[in-house]
């Protein structure tokens, strides 16, 4: 038979003639066969950086209207960038991906997802974390990149319950100084007050135990904090190193790569200092491209890791090949 474009579009191309040999379509359902609509496989992916085992844990996604999302580009250009990436042109699906570092059983999280405070399509983090074989009671350290709700809310349930019972919390000192400043909260526009209150909800009960870290320091073995300001005042990226392995953990250096890796000068609505964020983004994407370093982004499509290639006036995220650690 001839495959025509019309037949493919009509979905009939392969249905007409069974493929020669045993017909898979007619095979009887075996016990345990997933029914249509059965749950997706858990969203975790393990890979190695030197001797360190890294696990990306997905926390679902949230849709944001495209209109107004990029502050300094015409909507039509943003819609075209979405189209070029085969994404919807009305709303942006933003995914959330945290990392777990496992160093001989010592567990470090980088950010915690939305917890029970996010969109109905988010909040899958705990199920995926457990499916990956982890237990929140066993987490030793939680490192926070910055204080936006999608990164910190998973640390404490809405009712106030702490999620990681023995974990120490490591936060960027600059970020702490900004968000915990009552004067800054009083001056903030109405729309931002909720973010200040959210930070207090999560951290106030353990304020005296929170450890504040400085950029440029190795904060857990192999993990060095890198100042990446602009998205927020203390927004932090990381360099993870072990043996010959390196991973640049970019946090929210960009929101969706199809928009902001591709167009690094565009500003997302969440970037608090757009000019500073733009300069930081250019510098770090350029470094990743030059060094051909593996990168991880919090808001990239799962498993949210790959490489940065130069592409025209911007860059492109090249996904990594599926290469599980085990
Ligand atoms: Zn974020």
Task: Give a quick set of tags describing it.
326 residues; alpha/beta; Metallo-beta-lactamase, Chain A; seven-stranded mixed β-sheet; 14 strands; binds zinc ion; zinc
Short overview:
This protein has 326 residues and is of the alpha/beta class.
Question: Could you characterize what this model shows?
Answer:
This protein is of the alpha/beta class. The protein has one domain: Ribonuclease Z/Hydroxyacylglutathione hydrolase-like (Metallo-beta-lactamase, Chain A, 4-Layer Sandwich). Helices cover 23% and strands 26% of the residues. The protein contains nine helices and 14 strands. The protein has helices at residues 5-10, 75-84, 125-131, 149-152, 173-179, 182-187, 190-203, 257-260, 274-291; strands at residues 44-49, 52-65, 91-103, 106-110, 141-143, 168-172, 211-213, 218-220, 223-227, 236-242, 245-249, 294-296, 305-311, 314-319. Strands 1-2-3-4-5-6-7 form a seven-stranded mixed sheet. Strands 8-9-10-11-12-13-14 form a seven-stranded mixed sheet. Strand 3 and strand 4 (106-110) form a beta hairpin. The model is unreliable at 13-27 (pLDDT under 50). Bound molecules: zinc ion (ZN). Residues 148, 150-151, 252, 298-299 line the site of zinc ion (ZN).
Q: What fraction of the residues are assigned to beta strands by DSSP?
A: 25-35%
Name the bound molecules: zinc ion
Strand line-up across the major sheet: 1-2-3-4-5-6-7
> What is the straight-line distance between the termini?
42 Å
Per CATH, the class reads Alpha Beta
**From N to C, what is the helix and strand string?**
HEEHEEHEHEHHHEEEEEHHEEE
Structural class, by secondary structure, is: alpha/beta
Strand count, sense and barrel status of the largest sheet are: 7 strands, mixed
Number of strands: 14
Poorly predicted spans:
13-27
What's the name of the CATH homologous superfamily?
Answer: Ribonuclease Z/Hydroxyacylglutathione hydrolase-like
How many structural domains are formed by the residues?
Answer: 1
Instruction: Return the CATH topology.
Output: Metallo-beta-lactamase, Chain A
CATH architecture: 4-Layer Sandwich
């Amino acid at each position: 038979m001839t495959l025509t474009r019309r037949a493919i579009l009509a979905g009939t191309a392969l249905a007409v003639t069974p493929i020669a040999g045993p017909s898979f379509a007619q095979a009887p359902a075996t016990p345990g066969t997933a029914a249509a609509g059965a749950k997706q496989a858990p969203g975790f992916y393990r890979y190695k950086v030197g001797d360190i085992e890294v696990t990306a844990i997905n926390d679902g996604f949230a849709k944001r209207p495209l209109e107004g999302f990029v502050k300094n580009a015409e909507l039509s250009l943003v819609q075209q960038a979405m189209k070029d990436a085969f994404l919807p042109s009305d709303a942006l699906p933003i995914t959330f991906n945290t990392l777990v570092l496992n160093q001989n059983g010592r567990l470090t999280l980088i950010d915690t997802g939305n917890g029970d405070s996010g969109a109905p399509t988010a909040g899958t983090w705990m199920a995926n974390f457990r499916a990956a074989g982890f237990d929140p009671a066993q987490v030793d350290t939680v490192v926070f990149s910055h204080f936006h709700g999608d990164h910190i809310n998973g640390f404490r349930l809405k009712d106030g319950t702490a999620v990681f019972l023995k974990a120490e919390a490591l936060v960027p000192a600059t970020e702490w100084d900004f968000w915990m400043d009552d004067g800054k909260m009083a001056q903030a526009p109405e729309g931002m007050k909720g973010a200040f209150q959210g930070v207090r909800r999560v951290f106030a009960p353990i304020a005296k135990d929170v450890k504040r870290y400085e950029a440029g320091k190795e904060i857990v073995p192999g993990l060095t904090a890198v100042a990446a300001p602009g998205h927020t005042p203390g927004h932090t990226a990381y360099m993870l190193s072990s043996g010959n392995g390196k991973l640049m953990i970019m946090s929210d250096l960009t929101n969706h790569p199809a928009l902001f890796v591709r167009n690094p000068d565009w500003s997302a609505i969440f970037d608090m200092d757009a000019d500073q964020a733009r300069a930081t983004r250019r510098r770090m994407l350029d470094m990743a491209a030059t060094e051909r370093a593996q990168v991880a982004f919090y808001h990239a499509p799962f498993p949210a890791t790959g490489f940065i290639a130069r592409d025209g006036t911007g860059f492109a995220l090249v996904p990594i090949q599926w290469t599980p650690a085990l």
